Amino acid sequence: MTNELTPKFNPTEVEAGRYEKWLEADVFKPSGNPDAEPYSIVIPPPNVTGKLHLGHAWDTTLQDIIIRQKRMQGFDTLWLPGMDHAGIATQAKVAARLAEDGILPQDLGREKFLDKVWEWKDEYATTIKEQWGKMGISVDYSRERFTLDEGLSQAVRKVFVQLYNKGWIYRGEKLINWDPKAMTALSDIEVIHKEIDGAFYHITYQIEGSDEFVEIATTRPETFLGDTAVIVNEKDERYKHLVGKNVILPIINRVIPILTDDHADMEKGTGVVKITPAHDPNDFEVAMRHNLPMINMMNNDGTINENGGKYEGLDRFEARKQIVADLKELGQLVDIKPVRHEVGHSERTGVVVEPRLSTQWFVKMDELAKNAIANQTTEDAVEFYPPRFNDTFMQWMENVHDWVISRQLWWGHQIPAWYNEAGEMYVGEEAPEGEGWTQDEDVLDTWFSSALWPFSTMGWPDENSADFKRYFPTSTLVTGYDIIFFWVSRMIFQSLEFTGKSPFHNVLIHGLIRDEEGRKMSKSLGNGIDPMDVIEKYGADALRWFLSNGSAPGQDVRFSYDKMDAAWNFINKMWNVSRYILMNAEDVSADAVSSALTKVANKTAGNVTDRWILTRLNDTARRVTEQMDKFEFGVAGHILYNFIWDEFANWYLELTKEVMFGEDEAEKDITRAVLLHVLDQVLRLLHPIMPFFTEEIFEKLPNTSGSIVVAEYPKVRPEFNDDKASEGVAMLIELITAVRNIRAEVNTPLSKAVPMLIKSEHADFFNAVSPYISRFTNPSELTIAKDLAVPEQAMSAVITGAELYLPLAGLINIEEEIARLEKELAKWQKELDLVNKKLGNERFVANAKAEVVQKEKDKLADYQEKFDTVKARIVELKEN
Questions:
Q1: 467 with 474: CB under 8 angstroms?
Q2: CA gap 475, 507 in Å, rounded
Q3: Which of 272, 275, 480, 752 is most buried, by CB atoms within 10 Å?
Q4: Predicted model pTM
Q5: Cα(first)–Cα(last) distance of the chain, in Å?
């Protein structure tokens, strides 16, 4: 035989060069079959800031599983790849690289700096594509997109202008989240709230014209430089005499009024609240109600500006230290009380976010949110898996704030607004005609363009684009629950607004990859795992198996090298199974397989084990497909694993040796054909999860041709169903297992022949399979009958449909055997209690499918028979 498999599975050898062959063969492109149902996915675009992480490997693995299965099922599949420009993160990375050479972005200017960013993008996009290749993802690279492509830029400009013309995009001065390191505005969901150690600083403000003071408490004492009032509650008797008076801000000696406002809580702190409108969202609202001035006391980089007096130029945290020291010297620092509190941090740079008054561009969210909420009650609703994430989506949409979309960056979609010296502003898809116009220097939030991804990548705004007409809305989105707000929600409301449709039918939400201790992976903990390192050691198939087989929608997964070892062992098991089959069936043609299967189905050839394994294969294909359709990849993997490892490898392969080592050549031909067919179908079932290994074996099968990528996915073949064979071999396996267990209990090796008696209503079946019983249990004498005398001193076992006795005189202790049987009796009583409880539940009986209820009733009958038989045997032993 040519191209024999090596004795041990080597993932590096199997996976090397395979991906390039697939790309050359164009097997990942849509079929172009107009009669096939389209199925499309657009990849959640990784940003071009570095290597793929395990979370993205999880995204791509699950999507690849879906698209590979759908492709094999005959759908016209499109998986469109692309990448995101990631404005803040990418600009920060490039700026850091330049800083290593002592270069600032300002030294280069906007255009030359952007040239450097494009060089970065090309470098890291190449790296990401190489990593995609190692993962084996089956995307159509002829349609690859980037969020700064001209086509996508056109879509961004069109959306911006249309929303502006509707009054849903506006420019205004509001309090926003400010990142002092990236020196840009952030949206609310780009702020991560972390618990940190801080303090309440208790400070006194002197009442103007008196020796009286009021005490306030703040966690940010430096912001007093921007105070424009203090407030008390009008019902607070302690301060009624002060309302209308002024306080003098310490150090800077600015006079500000004392006002009343319900925001002041009499029960909280001293009941006196300082108001810093330009640096606190609640204070901003108070200032709006009282028409207070708003003093910004901070520069873009987090240093104190000219409004900070002698503290001008100091970093905000250094200024805090100086101010606290100065207040203490003045005697106006009353106390410092430690506190553990939540503080907003930039999702991108990690620094503490500063609430700051700023002029920015915003999207009005009321109507967009209303449309998205209403859509979830229609036939076009997006289906979330698991469904609880629909509640997460709805809650966010119901409480959403206006979205700040401008970013003070150079890398990104520059805002399509222009200004002239006359103070006029022009908003349009193209620059205005004439001289004297300057474009807004800010760019749009990355998520503004990413929100258009499902339809802008398909050719929109050209609604006659072939891809847009055929593949939009897309079928399924796979992503982590951590970006439902960032991305999923925004895609939904933008798509509804501009296409009138939901962007996708299904959203599969997965969790986070955590370390073995359950901790989130992070640089600070040093517990991150590079998926490329895992692939180098175990191969992509093993990593994909782990990511899918440990996966339940919406649940986190703990990475484990023990599980990676188990994944590799599973592939190696399949590798050895394949070697055995290929060595014994190298010359079997496709016609021979087809002919043999027809004979087995018609019961004109083959034996009960052949019919059993084909029945079990049918059941496996049905159940795996059902679970895959529900995105329950972990359940599907469990079903596959049990069939492949237990039924196919451990049992059927072993049972076939009775034929393969025999002398009946016709029977051998049938068994070889069944072995090849089951292996072929197993490879197809496994292929979406393990593409490399399955292709390697598939192309070596003597009865197949072409790539497994486009091979037909297994379907249930009713002609192979044989319930009688299935039940019979299940009894045979149970019998063999029971004998092995009894031998182990009395330390009697299989090599030592012992007498065996089988009492059963199915004596004819057990006699028919007696060669298998003899091979795998080694009886010195084998007696099988419907009725026979039970030996007094014998080890016994009750299996489905039979009673088994091994007369082992001198090897057993009657008391110990009774004790063992009583444990077994207790086990069957427990099973009976569970089934009776379920059948006694009226809701279960009324609502479950009839076949499910019947299955429980069948269990009840089986368990009762076993219970009664064991009980009778105990009585018999005690009487004797």
A1: no
A2: 9
A3: 275
A4: 0.84
A5: 62
